[in-house]
Amino acid sequence: MEEGFVAVAKVADVPPGTMTFVAVERERIVLAHVEGGFYALRDVCGHRNAPLSRGKLEGCIVECPLHFAQFDIRTGKYLDGPYSADVPAYECRVEGDTVYLKR
Ligand code: FES
Predict the structure, then answer these.
(1) What is the pLDDT of residue 103?
(2) How much is the pTM?
(3) Do residues 95 and 5 touch, judged by C-beta distance below 8 A?
């Protein structure tokens, strides 16, 4: 894998339509498997910092568990709910059975 990418999960550990929490160098990240691809956001809601990985994933929309702000899991773009900033996104790649994320 290219320089700058770190292994974060096995493909089989994140079934389609699900998301999971991963930690990379003390950073909280939510990793999701949707639409045949893997997407990762900082696991911190832009409203009041709740962990999105504890929220709900429906299609490509992740809903914050605290006040229900919604974001596009593929891009981190704020969609609805209490006013919030977009969530930073990370590039993901799959090689073999492993998911990598760009730091
Ligand atoms: S902390 Fe996420 S909507 Fe308030």
Answers:
(1) 86
(2) 0.95
(3) no
pLDDT at 95: 97
Ligand 1 midpoint to CA 25 (Å): 24
Residue 37 near residue 78, CB atoms below 8 Å: no
pLDDT at 9 over 90: yes
Domains of the chain, first to last: 5-102 (2.102.10.10)
Ligand 1, atom nearest to 55 Cα: 2
Under 8 Å between Cβ of 90 and 101: yes
Pocket of ligand 1 from Cβ distances under 6 Å? 45, 47-48, 50, 64, 66-69, 81-82
Task: Determine the pLDDT at residue 48.
Answer: 95
Q: Do 70 and 64 touch, CB atoms closer than 8 A?
A: yes
